[in-house]
Amino acid sequence: xxxxxxxxLRMRPVTLETPKPLVAVAGRTxxxxxxxxxxxxxxxxxxxNVHWLAAKIEAHLAARARPRIVISREDTLLETGGGIAxxxxxxxxxxxxxxNADIVWTDGAAPALDRLAASWDxxxxxxxxxxxxxDRAYGYDGDGDFHAAPDGRLRRRGDGPAPLVFTGVQILTxxxxxGAPPGAFSLNRLYDRAAEAGRLxxxxxxxxxxxxxxxxxxxxxxxxxxxxx
Length: 229
Prior knowledge:
Blueprint: E1 2-3, E2 24-25, E3 28-29, H1 30-40, E4 45-50, H2 54-61, E5 68-73, H3 79-91, E6 96-100, E7 103-106, H4 112-119, E8 127-133, E9 137-138, E10 146-148, E11 154-156, E12 164-172, H5 187-196, E13 200-204, E14 208-211, H6 215-228
Parallel strand pairs: 1-4, 1-6, 4-5, 8-13, 9-14
Antiparallel strand pairs: 2-3, 6-12, 7-14, 8-12, 10-11
C-alpha cells in the first residue's frame, strides 16, 4: 500500500495545485519513486489511497504499468491508520508493504524492501518498521521516534530524544488492525499497542533517507539527489 492521501499543508504553496506525492524530486515524483521500489521488489499490485487533488493522482497513475494500481479514494481523510484499515479488503490476508508517498529513500547494499522481507517474522511481529538514524536523516530536525533493543523490538522515545526516526516504510500484518477504531485514526495507536505486546519491531536502513516535509526539505533532497544523478 502507498499512502498518498495527505494534504501537504507544510509544503504550501507548492501543494496548492500539485498533490504532494506528485511533487518531483530530482526529476521523479515521490509517488513514482515509492512505486518504483515496490515494482523492483516484485510487488504486482499496489493500493494507493487518495484524497487531496485525487483526480490528478489518478490521472498520473493511469499511465503506470507496474505495479498494477488499485485506487482507494477517501471522501473524508482517514489518516494513516484509517486509510489502511479501509483498504484491507483490497490488500488481502497476507502481510503487506506500506510506504508513504511523501518521502524519498535510496537503497544501501541491498534493497530496503528486500531487507524488510528477509527480516519479517510473523510469529514475533505485527509490524516491522524501517528506521533511519537521526544523525543521517536529510531534512529531519526532530528528536527521533524510537529506541531499538538488540532483538529489534521497539519502544517509544519517551521524554528524551531517540536515535531512530521512522522512515514511513514498513511491513504490516492485517492482524495489527484487529479491534481498530472506525473512521480516522493514526497508525501510532496501533504501534503503541503492538509495542506493549512486544510485537513492534524495527530494521535500521543502510541507505539514504530524505524527509521531504517542507519546501526546505525538498530543496535539500533536490540538491543531494541531483548531485547523484
